[in-house]
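seq as requested:
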Amino acid sequence: MSASSFVASLTQLHDEVGNVEKALIELIRVKKMMAGQSQKVDTTQSQLQQTPIAIIGMASIFPQAKNLHEYWENILHEADCITDVPPSRWDVNAYYDPDPSAPDKTYCKRGGFIPDVDFNPMEFGLPPNILEVTDISQLLGLVIAKQAMEDSGYGESNPIDRENTGVILGTAVGRQLSMPYGTRLQYPIWERVLKSSGVSDEDTQKIVEKIKLAYVQWEENSFPGLLSNVVAGRIANRLNLGGTNCAIDAACASSLAAFKMAISELIERRCNVMLVGGVDTDNSIFTYMCFSKTPAMSREQQTRPFDADSDGMMLGEGIGMMVLKRLEDAERDGDRIYAVIKGMGTSSDGKFKSIYAPRVEGQVKALERAYADAGIDPATVGLIEAHGTGTSVGDMVEFGALKQVFSQHQAPVESIALGSVKSQIGHTKAAAGAASLIKAVLALHHKVLPPTINITTPNPKLELDRSPFYLNTQSRPWIRAEDAPPRRAGVSSFGFGGTNYHVVLEEYCGDHDRSYRLNRAGQPILLFANTPDHLLADCEAWIQKLRSTSETKAYADLLNISQTEVPLNAARVGFVCSSPTEAARKLRTFLDGFKSHHVESWEHPQGIFYRATGLDLRGKAVALFSGQGSQYLNMGRELAMNFPVMRQIYGYMDGLLQQDGLNAISNTVFPKPTLAESTQKAQAQRCRRPNIRSLRSRVSVQVSTKFCKRQGLSQTL
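struct tokens:
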């Protein structure tokens, strides 16, 4: 090799080494930058772990439920709240056509509609003359906001730091007044049409003015009265809140979008209390037309989430709000805590085939981010309240994302209850996330797995039996074995435009110093009179009282009278009920049945019992012991759902059994719901097995000695 070539080679080698050195330095720099970014992301994700958020107050109005209590009652009792469209919303005869292709017609004439509510404008300092030009969502929003604050313990009589209390609400369509105002401005078109049809100028003006009378007139309060953001603004104004206030539109995910922003306000300590939720009172014909022409509505007029016969959604109305506080502050102030928000994940679907087509990959990102944010293993979740609209494509995509995430975390097969409140109230659009959250929060609060209705055959394409999920079709006690992780739930909500949200909730395990049950427990009613005729007259009078405006007082009086000792010779009727409405209904059933039963005693299948006179109970008492083989599925289910000590005993027994590698006894007594007859028979046979009975007796000995002693009970159970 010549000297010149050797020098050239050395020069080339030097350059290459220099380039490698530069590349290595650049690589190290990039690695450091990425590590710093990663550390920043991890810190951001852990903020909610470090500052969990407590839910301390709630209020709502949803289809067939004027308040939070009725909403929870309807959920537990599997009520179908879908009804025909009332005349107050729109004219079915004018707009309905069963043919989905009929122009300017909707093929759906049912939905979920909120009940009528008395509104006193003076209660909120509003002049009555602005009601006509104020959207109903603003007026009812005030009512629910005030109820939520009172439920949290911070009503007018117990004020809070209002300067640092904010309100953020999810709203979407919510512009019912926009339609009549916009239509009113179309009068030039009416004039042209009338004139071109040969109508004189004078008659044209008369007709146009008559048409205008059908619509709201423009005035100075019209503009704020129709704006959706003023739903939050009016609440802040009337309740004197000084924190941030705004409305967020993320379509059907608006409620959870509002929660995301409210949580940030609390974590960043910009506010100390947040009033948050979703508002949607718009089941107008415009909304029906939008969803009919998509098309997304059910032709069968029924929502069937994850069912083989799912064919679309039903529209619903509703308002749901919650009061949030940092957990540390809520505990410091002695607030009642319904549940704790542990994590939240959001995402977008990115580029996809359609702006409103859901995407598995996008929803997976929201789920993964939510559980990373919470620092919780998805396998420890016991309930998923799904978006579950009942559309075949939407349900398949949502289930696909859930199955992918939870299977990757080795969640046991059929270990997580899956459901959707939309099966009962319809899709409440901007308030859908709030409806789902409230359901899941109350499930954690009451330790009950709530049902999903209208499921007859689970969609076989889901392959549920090979997934971590099962469809919970009946109310069941939510038993947690001792030393197991706290009860946890996840709530999903998705919106047009490819926006995805998922919230992770956890039960509050601290002590509560007040009653917690929202649903009414059944109470015995016993009425009596000297003669059957007098008894009938008394029943008629009570029905009128129970159906009056003072029904609550009448029901309390009825319960009080039922405690009176009944004379032996008096005629009497008795039953169990949980509300004034149910009491009135059963009394009417008794009266109707009495007319066709002229006997000394009879009973109705609804649990109504009548006797013309009492029984002489003097004599020997007989005790009947049912013996072996009398066990049946869900034995004591209502007891376990309504009495904490019973639920805790089951949890204690489950813990003892699992320590020995045995199956939890609660899974045998309260098995997962199934629609397959063969599986139902197998579950019943398993419950009656001799080894289950002996096992139950053996464990009961340990429970009676250890559990009761620990609980401070004076005697064994």
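The CA atoms of residues 576 and 658 lie 38 Å apart.
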